Write a sequence for this structure.
């Protein structure tokens, strides 16, 4: 599933049984998902893991937040692909190892590199710096839920 503002690939099942099988594959982390985003600043180090527990911010739904006491474990790997020093923006590749709501958006904001165009998590100047959320699901790879053969789909980021 994708946040409404996220562009890119998504998979849809045909029929209840295929939906169940795909859902199990996602739950068991047998689906390879990769995203690209444009973020403020330059992540340091240029590659790393973000492990911050997330929970719904009930008074500000649909926002999520980091909560060390009650949050669910969440893990995102990031890698900087390019940096624009003039505008102080970076293109990053993201791999969510867990699938929490808004995980990529909250994790990047929490480490000080919000995604451009993010109406929920970026400060107003960064939200207005792009015409849309600069987050794109660019790669999906999984085994066909009925036939078992590998399937890989790629969609380059349009930004």
């Amino acid at each position: 599933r994708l946040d409404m503002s996220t562009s890119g690939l998504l998979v849809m099942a045909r029929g209840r049984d295929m939906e169940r099988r795909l859902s199990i594959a996602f739950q068991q982390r047998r689906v390879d998902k990769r995203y690209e985003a444009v973020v403020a600043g330059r992540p340091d180090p240029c590659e790393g893991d973000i492990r911050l527990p997330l929970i719904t911010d009930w008074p500000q739904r649909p926002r999520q937040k980091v909560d060390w006491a009650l949050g669910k474990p969440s893990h995102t790997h990031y890698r900087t692909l390019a940096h624009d020093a003039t505008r102080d923006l970076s293109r990053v590749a993201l791999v969510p190892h867990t699938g929490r709501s808004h995980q990529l958006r909250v994790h990047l904001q929490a480490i000080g590199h919000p995604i451009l165009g993010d109406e929920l998590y970026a400060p107003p100047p960064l939200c207005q710096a792009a015409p849309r959320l600069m987050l794109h699901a660019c790669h999906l790879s999984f085994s066909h839920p009925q036939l078992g053969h590998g399937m890989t789909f790629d969609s380059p980021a349009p930004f």
